[in-house]
Each structure stands twice: as structure tokens, then as C-alpha cells.
Amino acid sequence: MVLKSSHRPTYIPNHISDPKYIRILDTTLRDGEQSSGVTLTPKEKLDIAHQLAKLGVDVIEAGFPASSESEAEVVKLIAQEVGNATTETEVGDHVPVICCLARCTKKDIDMAWEAVKYAKYPRILMFIATSEIHMKYKLNMTKVEVLEKAKCMVLYAKSLGCHDIQFALKMLKGTSEKEFLYEILGEVIKVGATTVGLGDTVGYNLPSEYGQLIADIRGNTPGIEDDAIVSTHCHNDLGLATANTLMGASCGARQLEVTINGIGERAGNASLEEVVMAIKCKRELLDHLYTGINTRHIMIASKMVEEYTGMQVQPHKAIVGANAFAHQSGIHQDGVLKNKSTYEFISPEDIGLHRSNEFGLTLGKLSGSHALKMKLFELGYNYDEKELSDIFARFKLLAETNKVITDDDLKALVSS
Question: Residue 292 and residue 274: Cα distance in Å, rounded?
Fold first, then answer.
């Protein structure tokens, strides 16, 4: 399968010249690091940022400067180094936007701007809660107060010299009143927000619900069509983050927020590799949307994040799991030996995966004689049908007790 990318449009904060282009914002270094038990060193964060640039990520959310002095320093380092370095990608030379998080307070915004302003394309991502329960119990603010706070903080960020401002709404179980969402988003766009984000903060929505929310926001928010980009931010508490993100794109969102390996708070975020490969593989059904991601850097990024965070990727994880391109069932093995496309619609090389054997065969109790014959041939053994039949019978007995048959197991088997 050949996966081709189109040209990446010139970066304009509040506009994308090609309506089919999808910006990818990676928040591995911010939301991903909020995963329980994860702490990244400054060097690790810088390494990951460089890899995200090679991957072709449009926007790197580098961290939350107000959380600590060391966090502010590493965001500044990423802005200075990665945010000014040109990287060659599949869709041309690229310098990523460097973004960092801020609450709607002057202190947070000051620290965010001081850290990120050194990038060629700096952005501040500020957020505020809009659900009734959050406004009442977390913010102790009325709707009028929340609206005024949002406008004032966007204007304050602009006064510092920041002209790429993302404003995100944190929603709990979709309980924010839509009329209030239209009003607050319309007002922040009017005073300078260039991207507006809709967070499925606790991963509660179904794709139909989230898609309808995106469509309603786009259809009812003043100024949104001409003056701002709509962004998704989906959590995975019901296992629907990727599906919700893709539905958001189908309904008009043109920035998708994701993390490598889907790491993040609680059950994690929408997975970059799943979202990007779904868009590439199903492009015709997704109205020919495309991204600027160099998919051949996916496995490198996945392994780096896994190693640095200690968050092990589950073997059956889509795209990057150890079993994603492995075949153990005899029925499947017979198919891929005849033609890989029978069970692989993505070539492992497309994501930068180089398998230990050409067909991704693993041997177990459900494996067939064709796979055994191929594996033996790879090890330098060549048997006629009668000899193979005898070895296969002994192999099946061994496989009843060994979950996976290794090369050493096979060598011992044929020499016994």
C-alpha cells in the first residue's frame, strides 16, 4: 500500500489555505506527561520534541510553564532549539509551532509567553471550564464572570505580543450549555483567539455526540468560519478517543490533538498513530483529508516515548503494538505467505517497522505447517513433505505447553 501526502500549507494561525489539510497538535510532552507515574527529564523532553519535529507534527505542546521553574526552562529550550530548526519531512521543510499551556490568569500567561516567545511560531494555549459543575465548584464563578475572564485573558496575551492564541473549553460529560459555548467562543475569537478547542475532558461522548457538537459549534459561533480553526481534544475513558477525534475531523475540525501511544491522564488521549493512519488509509471516505505526518517515523517516536516514560505499549495496541504486524494463526499465516495484503492493509515499512522476518510469523499452537516450513527454511533447514510432517507433529505437541516457540526451541526440536 502506497501512502502519499500532499503539500503542507503555509502556516497562518487562524487559517488553513487547503480545507482538506488537518493540523496535528501533539501533547505528549504536556498531557502525556500527566500520566500517573510519568516524569520526563529535560533531555528526554527535548529528544522527544526533536522526534516530533521529524514526524512532521504541526504543533508541539511542550509543557505547562507555570507548574515549575524547571518546566518553564525546558519549554524555553524547546522553543529556542526545536522551534527554530527546519526539519525535512514528507511534505517539505517544516518548523513546528511551539505551544504551551496556561490557565486564564496573568501569572500563567506571563510565564507561558516568557517560555515560548523564542520560537519562530509561538502559541499560548489557555483554557477555562464551562460545565456548570466546574464553574460552580472549581472556579466559583458565574457564566458572566467566566465569559469576561476569557475575553480579558486573550486580550492580555495579545498585549504581550502573542498573536497565535488557542482557547480551549473543558467540558464535563457534554454538560456545557451550547448557547453559552457559542457565546464564549464567539467573544474570544472576536478579541483574537486563532484556534478554539473543544475538550471531551472525561472521555464521555459517543462519536455521534461529539461530531454533532463540532458541527453545532461551527454552525452557530460568530466568526468561526473565517477567523479561527476548530480543534479536538478527546480522552479515552470509554475507548472512543480515536473515533471521536475522527468524527470531529469529519464534522469540520481542522486541528486534532493527540499523543504518541495514546498516553495521558487516566485512560489516555487520542493516539497519534491511530488517528493519522486512519486518515491515510480511509482518506477517500474522509473527504480526502490529509496530514503532514511522516508516518515512517511513527515507530521511532513510539519506542522513544515508551522507553522514556516507562509506559509499556500493550502488545495488541493498534499500529505500534508488538502483535500489530505479527501472525500466529495458521489460517492467517497461510494467507500472508501467499500475499501479505490478505491480512495487512498497512505495510509495516509505512510506519518505520522492520520485522525480524519478512512475513511477521510467530509460532504457537494455532500455527500451520506452511509457517513452520517457512520458519525452518529461514533457520537453514529444508525438509521434504514426509520429514516436515513428522516435525510438525512433534511441533504441535511442544506448542501445547510452550506459549511461543522460539528459534532455539525449533533447533532443539529438529535435532532431537
Answer: 15
Query: How many helices (H) and strands (E) in the chain?
Result: 15, 10
What pLDDT shows up at residue 315? Answer: 85
What's the pLDDT tens digit per position in 201-246? 889 999 999 999 999 999 999 999 999 999 999 999 999 999 999 9
Radius of gyration of the chain (CA): 24
Q: Contact at 8 Å (CB) between 91 and 6?
A: yes
Residue 339 has, within 13 A of its CA and on its CB side, a CA count of: 4
- The Cα–Cα gap between 275 and 315 comes to 18
Average pLDDT over residues 251-255: 98
Cα–Cα distance, 43 to 39 (Å, whole number)? 12
> 309: buried, middle or exposed (CB in 10 Å: 19+, 13-18, 0-12)?
buried
Helix (H, G, I), strand (E, B), or coil: what is residue 73?
helix
Global pTM reads 0.86
The pLDDT value given to residue 345: 73
Element (H, E) at 188: helix 178-190
Quote the strand ranges of 291-370, DSSP E: none
Residue 343 has a CB neighbour count (10 Å cut-off) of 17
DSSP label of 136: I
**Kind plus residue range of the DSSP H or E element containing 100:** strand 97-103
Cα gap 135→139, rounded to integer Å = 5
Q: How far apart are CA 381 and CA 151, in angstroms?
A: 73
Side chain identity at 411, as an amino acid letter?
Answer: K
Give the 3-state secondary structure percentages of the chain, helix then strand then coil, rounded to 5.
45, 15, 40
Closest CA to 85 of 47, 120, 43: 120
Alpha-carbon distance of 19 to 90, in angstroms, equals: 19
Q: Is 126 exposed, middle or buried (0-12, 13-18, 19+ CB in 10 A)?
A: buried
Residue with grid cell 518548523, as numbered in its chain:
95
Residue 25 three-state SS: strand
